[in-house]
Amino acid sequence: MNRPIQPAQHLQSQVPVELQAPDIRPYRRVSAAAGTPAIDYLVRLESGKPGPHVLIQALTHGNELCGAIALDFLLQEDVRPLQGVLSLVFANVEAYHRWDPENPHGNRFCDEDYNRLWGDDVLKGPRDSIELRRARELVNYIDSADYLLDLHSMSAPCEALMVCGVREHGGLKAVAMTQGIGLPRWLMMDTGHSAGLRMIERGRFGDPRAKAVAALLEAGQHWERKSEAVARDASLRFLAYTGLIDRDWALSRCSLAPEQQRVIQVTEAVIAKTKSFQWLADYQGLEVIEHAGTAIAQDGDACLRTPYDDCVLVMPTRARFTVGNTMLRFGRIES
What we know:
Layout: E1 42-46, E2 53-58, H1 65-76, E3 85-90, H2 93-96, H3 120-123, H4 130-143, E4 147-154, E5 161-166, H5 171-181, E6 186-190, E7 213-221, H6 225-241, H7 247-251, E8 262-271, E9 278-279, E10 287-289, E11 295-299, E12 302-305, E13 311-314, E14 326-333
């Protein structure tokens, strides 16, 4: 006889803060090249030679420290492009400046999620917020990039993951780029986000016919030390892949070996329908559940079960239990 399902307690990340938030104030106004837009915390480095515009963004969310550490590392190493233009962007600095290691969940954003605002209907609409003002300030510059790497981290301890976007809207070219970079191990194409357009899906990035390509790195748990190494190494390998920096110079500063990569196709996102959503076990993310029909969560009276064999649990949310929030994505391993 089957035992009754007992819901696990809501899981808030209790990971200690192992990272030190860097002082980014010296980077408020760095670019001095002629024609450089006067935008705070945008560092533009020009080679003076033809080539692509390559952009790395950190601090899409204010409490995701590893990206800021990676950009600070590149600047401390005096990185310079061999061709084209390199742009390093510290995005949601208003949220970042509210960082408090005693309340590390408290400054993800100020008013709203900065990575749900990138549709023209929102950017050109009537709403106002701290995040929208910053997005409107940066959007034209973001649109000029040929390659974009957006550095993030996750609330729960989990292996690193490259979010490549929607298959038919730029996902396949982002997968190809990430395979050229060589890490992380897991690459994901998904179904987009119900709450709004992400930066990596915007304009040319989301057009499969355009050459511009973007991907979003989830480097691991927000404050675990390994997320710093993942963000740094991915950034270095990304710049080497695009030809902006010398490959040997980049690899000499990496500490992680390239991975045997696997591609996940998300088949559906699971949205919380009630305030009583509960996980039935302590899922960290990227677990492969062998059998279809395995119970994994309770949402009110409904039991959430895996839809097929060898189902990957992608980015289960452990910190934000609200109606309408994406709690989980189901994925199939393609390769």
